[in-house]
Design brief:
One of its GO terms (cellular component) is cytosol. This is Phosphoribosylaminoimidazole-succinocarboxamide synthase. The protein has 6 helices and 15 strands. The chain is an alpha+beta fold. The longest helix has 24 residues, at 145-168.
């Protein structure tokens, strides 16, 4: 497998072509952003931590029968992934009230949500990832009704697997976002799953151990990511 030209550079990851048209190299950088890129910093070890964290989670999900784009780790900061035709709609599940839900609805942070909520957001930084619904997604051609149904079903299957995984480590999976794409006609989980794209709290103290530490200036961001990883069995060595 030969790594070739850079195809895309996002806020925290870069994507490279390979000599196989069906495979890409995903490079996790140390860059960290918040508020749609308005705040940017480089945090030492972040690329390594998120790459290994993501590989661990993707492995757990794949073992549970969920199709994922990850093929294998290549290095501390790179992995090989399937080339997906990405669907520009993010799926968000919330188990506990936090973040934008609290601001939008005026509910109390920390309120348990039973059953968990499911929301769709258009992936568009310029528009600040607006909330959308299935009707809009279908009308504007972002996804078909069948694709949306499969994405929703897979998102809740992920919730079943990961809520228990994190609970076993004394953690609450507060909420998370997932991105999906199409590979050979199948809906496949893409992008990443790391503390950058979810909220994780200590189950007893409710200490925040995710990207909110960066957003809210709490410090110890990477140390918190590593603590989460150690509790669930991620190998950072």
């Amino acid at each position: 497998m030969e790594k070739r030209q850079e195809l895309y550079a996002g806020k925290a990851k870069s994507v490279f072509a390979t000599d196989d048209p069906d495979l890409l190299v995903l490079h996790f950088r140390d860059d960290t952003s918040a508020f749609d890129g308005e705040r940017m910093e480089s945090l030492e070890r972040k690329g390594m931590v998120n790459n290994r964290f993501n590989a661990f989670i993707m492995g757990k999900l794949q073992a549970a029968g969920i199709p994922v784009h990850l093929e294998r780790l290549l290095s501390d900061t790179e992995c090989l992934v399937k080339k997906l035709d990405m669907i520009p709609v993010e799926c968000v599940v919330r188990n506990v009230a936090a973040g934008s839900l609290v601001k939008r609805l005026g509910v109390e942070e920390g309120q348990e949500l039973t059953p968990p909520t499911f929301e769709l957001f258009l992936k568009n930084d310029k528009l600040h990832d607006p909330m959308v619904n299935e009707s809009l997604a279908i009308t504007f051609g972002w996804a078909t009704a069948e694709q949306l149904a499969e994405m929703k079903a897979l998102t809740f299957r992920v919730n079943d697997v990961l809520k228990q995984l994190f609970a076993d480590g004394g953690l609450l999976l507060v909420d998370y976002k997932l991105e999906f794409g199409v590979f050979n006609g199948q809906i496949v989980l893409g992008d990443e799953f790391s503390p950058d794209g979810c909220r994780l709290w200590d189950a007893e103290t409710r200490e925040k151990l995710d990207k909110d530490r960066f957003r809210q200036g709490l410090g110890g961001v990477i140390e918190a990511y590593e603590e989460v990883g150690r509790r669930i069995g991620v190998d950072f060595s």
